[in-house]
Design goal:
About 65% of the residues lie in helices and about 15% in strands. It is of the alpha/beta class. It folds into 3 domains: about 20-220, Glycerol uptake facilitator protein, CATH 1.20.1080; about 255-330, GMP Synthetase, Chain A, domain 3, CATH 3.30.300; about 350-439, GMP Synthetase, Chain A, domain 3 (2-Layer Sandwich), CATH 3.30.300.30.
C-alpha cells in the first residue's frame, strides 16, 4: 500500500505544472495581444488566407500546412475561453469582436479568390474539410489543451506550431469560401460545422486549463449568472458535438463497408474461368458493381457470386454484376475473320489467274510479231504471220494446238516450206504446232 502511495506521489510530481508555470500576468498579456487583428496580426491573417486558399485550390498539403502555421486565428479563440474562465467580460467582448472580424475577412477573401481562380474542381484537400466527425472534436479538444498549456508554460518549445497544424482552423474557413463561390451548400455547411467544432472545443479546453491552473478571476460574478453561463456552455457544446457522433458513426459504417467490399471483390476476382475486369464500390449508397470478362455467366452463377457477399457481412442485394467481354463473342468474331480470310485468298488467286491470262495474251501477240521479224530474215517474201493458240475438233474430240498461218507474196516451193516448218518447230518448241502457208 505504501509503495502504491509512493508511486502516486511520484506521478503527481511529474505531472505538476506549477514549477514551469509562467507568471499569470504575462500569460494574460500574451492572450490579450493575440486577440487583436490590426497591424502585424491583420497582415499575417491576410497572408494566411491567400496561402490556404491556393493550397486547397492546388491540392497541396505542404502549402496548407504552411497556412496553418502562420494563421493567427487561435488568438481570439483562446481569448474567449480564457475570458470565460476568469470572468473577464471586457476581454470576452473584444475576443468575440475580433474573432468575428477574422472569420468574416477570411471567408470574404477566400470567396473572392475562388471566384477568380480558373481551377474550380473540388480536390481531396477541400473535400476532407466537408465531413467533420467526433474525431475532429477529439482533435480540437486535445489540441486546444496542448495550446493553452504551452502558452501558460515557460517552456513553450514547438508546441504552438504543432497545435496550429492539428486543429487546422484556416482551411475550413477557406473551404466555406469555396462552397459560397461554387454555389455548393453541402461544402459550405460541412466546412462551417468543422470550423465551429474547432472553435468551440479549443475555447472549451482553454477555459478548462485556465480554471485548473487557477488563474485569478477578473471580477466578481453573481452565482445566478454563473449558472446561466454554465447552462449556456453546455447547450453550445451539446449542439456542436451531437451531430458529430452521427457523422462519426456514419464514417465508421462507410469504412467498414469499404473494407468488407475490398475483401469480397478480391475473393470473387476469378470465378469459373471468368475474371473481374473492373469493380467499383459506393460506400455512401452501399453498392458494389462487378464487371466480368470470360465465359457468359449464367443466372445461377451470378446468384452464387452475390451470395458469397454474405461471408463478408454484405447484403447480396448490394452487388450488381455486369457481363463485360465474352469469349464466345470473340470465337464468333475469329470464325468470321477466318472465313473472310479464306474468301479473300480465293479472290486473290482468281485475280492472279486472270492477270496471268492477260499476260499470256499480251505475250502471244508480241511473240507473233517477233516470229515475223525472224522469218523475214529467212525469206523476205513473207508478208504476214498469225500466231495463236486454238482448238481442233475432230471425230468428236477436241485437242489444243498452236496455229501459225504464214502469208507470202510469192509461191513458196516445197523445199523452202519444209525448211520453214522445221525451223518453226525448233523455234516454238511445241509438239502441237500446226503451220499453214498461203501464197
Amino acid at each position: 500500500m505504501a509503495t502504491i502511495k509512493h508511486w502516486i506521489k511520484v506521478l503527481m510530481r511529474i505531472l505538476r505544472l506549477d514549477a514551469e508555470l509562467e507568471d499569470h500576468a504575462i500569460v494574460q498579456e500574451a492572450i490579450t495581444k493575440g486577440i487583436i487583428f490590426k497591424g502585424t496580426n491583420l497582415w499575417i491573417l491576410i497572408f494566411a488566407i491567400v496561402v490556404a486558399s491556393v493550397g486547397l485550390n492546388m491540392n497541396s498539403t505542404a502549402v496548407i500546412i504552411g497556412a496553418m502555421l502562420i494563421s493567427p486565428l487561435m488568438g481570439p479563440i483562446n481569448g474567449i475561453g480564457f475570458s470565460i474562465a476568469t470572468y473577464n467580460v471586457d476581454l470576452f467582448k473584444r475576443s468575440i469582436k475580433n474573432f468575428a472580424f477574422a472569420v468574416v475577412a477570411s471567408i470574404t477573401a477566400s470567396t473572392i479568390y475562388f471566384l477568380l481562380s480558373p481551377v474550380s474542381n473540388a480536390q481531396s484537400e477541400l473535400l476532407a474539410r466537408t465531413s467533420p466527425t467526433i474525431f475532429d472534436v477529439i482533435i480540437a479538444l486535445f489540441g486546444g489543451f496542448a495550446g493553452i498549456v504551452a502558452m501558460s508554460s515557460k517552456n513553450k518549445g514547438n508546441v504552438i506550431p504543432g497545435v496550429a497544424i492539428a486543429t487546422a482552423l484556416m482551411p475550413p474557413l477557406c473551404t466555406v469560401g469555396y462552397g459560397i463561390a461554387s454555389g455548393n451548400p453541402s461544402y459550405f455547411l460541412g466546412a462551417l460545422y468543422l470550423f465551429t467544432i474547432n472553435t468551440v472545443f479549443i475555447a472549451l479546453s482553454s477555459m478548462i486549463v485556465t480554471q485548473v491552473l487557477k488563474f485569478p478571476k477578473h471580477s466578481f460574478i453573481p452565482s445566478k449568472y454563473k449558472q446561466v453561463t454554465k447552462l449556456t456552455l453546455w447547450i453550445v457544446i451539446s449542439i456542436t458535438v451531437l451531430p458529430s457522433f452521427y457523422l462519426g458513426y456514419t464514417l465508421v459504417k462507410k469504412e467498414k463497408f469499404q473494407n468488407s467490399a475490398d475483401l469480397y471483390t478480391t475473393f470473387v476476382a476469378n470465378y469459373n474461368e471468368n475474371f473481374l475486369l473492373r469493380h467499383s464500390v459506393d460506400a455512401d449508397k452501399r453498392k458494389i458493381q462487378l464487371i466480368y470478362g470470360g465465359n457468359n455467366l449464367s443466372a445461377d452463377e451470378k446468384r452464387s457470386i452475390k451470395n458469397e457477399a454474405k461471408q463478408f457481412g454484405l447484403d447480396p442485394k448490394s452487388v450488381q454484376i455486369i457481363q463485360g467481354l465474352k469469349m464466345n463473342d470473340f470465337k464468333n468474331e475469329f470464325s468470321e475473320i477466318d472465313k473472310l480470310k479464306t474468301e479473300f485468298s480465293s479472290f486473290s488467286q482468281l485475280i492472279q489467274q486472270k492477270d496471268a491470262t492477260i499476260d499470256s495474251l499480251k505475250n502471244e501477240s508480241l511473240f507473233g510479231e517477233q516470229l515475223l521479224k525472224e522469218m523475214k530474215v529467212l525469206d523476205p517474201d513473207i508478208k504476214s504471220v498469225i500466231y495463236t493458240k486454238t482448238n481442233v475438233f475432230e471425230n468428236g474430240k477436241r485437242s489444243a494446238v498452236t496455229l501459225i498461218r504464214i502469208e507470202s507474196e510469192k509461191n513458196v516451193n516445197s523445199r523452202s516450206e519444209d525448211m520453214l516448218k522445221n525451223w518453226l518447230k525448233e523455234r516454238v518448241n511445241d509438239d502441237s504446232l500446226l503451220v499453214v502457208i498461203e501464197d
